[in-house]
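Re-running the complex after MR caught last week's input typo. The corrected sequence lines follow. Everything else is unchanged.
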Amino acid sequence: MNARLRDDARILAVFAAVVIAFGVLAQHDAGLSQAGTYVAIFAPAAIGLSILLGNVNQISVGQAGFFGIGAYSVGYLTVERGWPFWTAAPLGVVLAAAIGVGLGFVALRFRGHYLAMATLAFGLIAAGVFHAAPFLGHASGITGIPYPQFGPLTISGHAAYWFAWIVAFAIALLSLAMLRGRPGRAFEAIRNDELAAETIGIPTRRYKIIAFAYAGALAAAGGATFAAFLGLVNPDAVGIALSVDVLLMVVLGGSGLISGALFGAALIGYLNVVGHQWDNWREVGYGLLVVLCVIFAPGGVLGTLRRLAARTPSARAAAPLPAVGAAPRVRAPSAEPLAVRGVTKRFGGLVAVDEVSFALQPGTLTALIGPNGAGKTTLFNAICGVGRPTAGRIAIGGIDVTGRQPHRVAALGVGRTFQNARLFGEMTVFENVAAAAAANRRVADRRAREVIARLGLDHLAGVPAKDLAFGDRRRAELARAIAAEPWLLLVDEPAAGLNQPERERLNADLLALRDAGTTLLLIEHDMKLVMAISQRVIVLEFGRVIADAAPAEVQRDPRVVAAYLGTAT
Amino acid sequence: MSALLEVRGLRAGYGALEVLRGVDLDVAAGELVAVLGPNGAGKSTLLRAISRYDATLRGGTIVFDGADLTRASTERTVRLGCLQVPEGRQLFGRMSVEDNLRLGAFVRSRRTVESELGTVYERFPVLAQRRAQAAYTLSGGEQQMLAIGRALMARPKLLMLDEPSTGLAPQIVEQIFAIASELARGGTALLIVEQNAYLTLRHADRAYVLENGAVALAGTAAELSRDERVKAIYLGGSTV
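Corrected-run output:
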C-alpha cells in the first residue's frame, strides 16, 4: 500500500483517540464541548478540499457554497416543510454533489489561477443566491432549525459533539477507502501527469468531475450538521470568509492527507475561538501563518512532520517485492493493428502532418523517422487521441478511433511512451506500473510485479519515480506501457539519453516484445538502433512520407540522404 | 594560432540525463566552425553548456579568452564576449526592432550603443528599414538577422548560432551563411550548430560531428565533405 495512505490511517487512529479523550474531558464544560463540535462540523469540508487539492491537484475557493447548500437544505426543509433532519440532510448532500458535477465540468476548462477565480465566482454566486432567494430569508437567513431527533433522543449539547465526530470519522474512513482503491490511483496519476494518465487509459475528465462532486458533497454534509446544531443559517455564515477558512485548514494541516484536513480544522477552530478577543487582527495572523507555512512547511504541518519522520529510516525507500516470473499475455489482433488513412494535422497555417497513410501488420516492428520537426510526434499524438487530426481517419484493430479521447484509445490496447519519459514522479515504480494495469487492485498488483520482474526493475520497485536515474526512468516507463498489455505499442525516442549498455538492453526488450506478438511503432533518432531492429522504416519530412521501405533500401534512398544531410548545392 | 575557446572533456546534461559524454573542441578567432550530427547527438546542449545557459555541467573545462567559464554565470559569459543566438531566435516579439537591438547592448556602456547600432544597420540594411516595427511582424529571415544583430550589439568575440537555417527558405539560408562568413573574415569566431550537414560544410572552415554525446569525427570542412562516415553517422550505417 501507498506509504502516504498508511501513515494517514495511523495518524487518523491517533486523532480518534484524542477526540474520544477530549469528549470525555469536556462533557461537563459546555464551552469546550461546543468548540469540539465546531471542529467536527468543518472537518468534512476540509477533507473534501484536501482530496481535491492534494490528490487531484485542483483548487477550489468556493467550498462555502456547497457548505451553504447543505445548511440551507436542512434549514428550509425542516423549518418550512417539516421534514426530519434524516431526509433533509441527504437531499442537501445529493444536491451539492449534482452541483459539484456542474462545477467539475466548468473546472475542466480552467487551470491554476483561473480555476481559483472560477471557483471563487461559484462561491460568490452561491452566496448571492442564498441572499436573494425569497424563501431563504434574505440577510437574516433561516432560524429556529430543530435539533435532529433520533427516536426519543434529541441530539443536542454534548450528544451533538459525539454525533458530529461520528459523521466526520465515517467520512474520513470512507475517503481513505476510496483513496486506497482505483479512484485513489487514478487521482494520484492525474495529479502527477494528466496526459500520461490519459494514455494509460485513465478517464481523467471523469475523475476530476467525480472529485469536485465528492468534495462538494462532503462540504454539504458539514453544512447540514452546522444548520442542525447551531439552529440557524444565514448568508454571512456561508460566505467567502468560510471558503478561505476551509482552504486555510487544508493548506495549514497538509493537503492530500485526510488527517491533515482534520488537524487543520482543529487548528483553525482553535484559533477562531482563541482569536476572538483580537478580532480584527485575527485575519492578519492567518495571513502571516499561511505565508510562513507555504515557505517553511509547504506540505502543511502534518505533511512536513511526515516528511521529517520518513527521512530518518532510509531502509523503507527500496523495499524489494517478491518477483513473479511469467510470460507476456498478448491478445491476438483480428485485423490490422493500426491503419492511418490520409491523416493531416494543421496548426494554424503550419501543416505538421500532411496526408500520411500507412498500415501496420501484426507482430512487426516499424520505425518512424525523419528530421526534427518532420511531424513524427504529432502523428503519434493523433494516433493516441491527443489532438484530433484535421483530416483523415485512424483505425486501431479495424475500429475507427479518429478523435476519440486518449483513454478510450488506450482501452483498445494501445500503449505509449513519451520522448521525455512522463512518469508519475511522486509515485513509486511499482505504483506507476500498477496504475496502468487496468484491473482490480489485486490483479493489477500481480501484473505490475510480473512486468517489473520481466524488465529487471525489482530492486527499484519501491523508489519514487522522480529519484530514478535517467536510464531506469525510461525502463520504468516502458514497464508502465507494457503493464496494460497493449498489442500496439508506440515508443517515442526510447534510446535518447541512454548509454551503450542501456541501448543494447532496450534493443533486446523491444525485440522480445515484438516476438511476443506486440506490434511496435518506434520513433528514434539513433539510426544504428533503427536500422538494426526494424523490419520497415517510414521516413517523414515536412509532414509527408518520403520513403517507406526496408532499412537498407531507405539508407540508399537519395531523398532520405538529402532530408538528413542536406544537399551541397 | 592559439584557440579563443578551448573545451576539454566536457560532460553536461539536464537533471538525471547525461547528454555530453566528454567533448573536446577548439575555436580560434576568425574561424567558422560547424558542429554537426544527427538529432539528439548533443549539439544544442554543447552550445547551451558553453554559454552557461541551462545545461548542468558534470565535468571538464571550458576556457574562453583565458577565462574559466565552468563557474561563470550566463551574464559573465556575455560580458566576456561569448554570445549565443538561440534556436528559434527568442526575440522580444512585441518590442520594436531597434529596442531589441538596444537590449543586445545591455552589458555595454551607453556611449557605444549609438555607434554600434549604426554598424549593425549597415550590415543589415533591412533592419534599419524596419527599426520601428514590432519584432514579431518580421519575416523568418529578418527575424534571424535581428537575432544575430542583437547578439552583435554586445561586440562578441565568439558568436554561436543554434540551427540558424530552421524554417528558412534556401536562399535566406545562403544569406545567413554569407553573413556568418563575413563576420569570420572580420575576426569574430563562429560556432554554428546545424542539421543540414552538406550546406554547412560548404561554408565552414572546420567541423566536428557529434554522435551520442561525443565527437565521432573532426576535421577540415573539405575533408569531411568527402568522408562517407558522415553519412553513416546520420543514417545508421557502419562507421568503420
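None of the earlier attempt is carried over here. The beta strands of chain B are 5-14, 17-27, 32-36, 56-64, 67-68, 82-85, 158-162, 189-193, 206-211, 214-220. Chain B touches chain A through 29 residues (CB under 8 Å).
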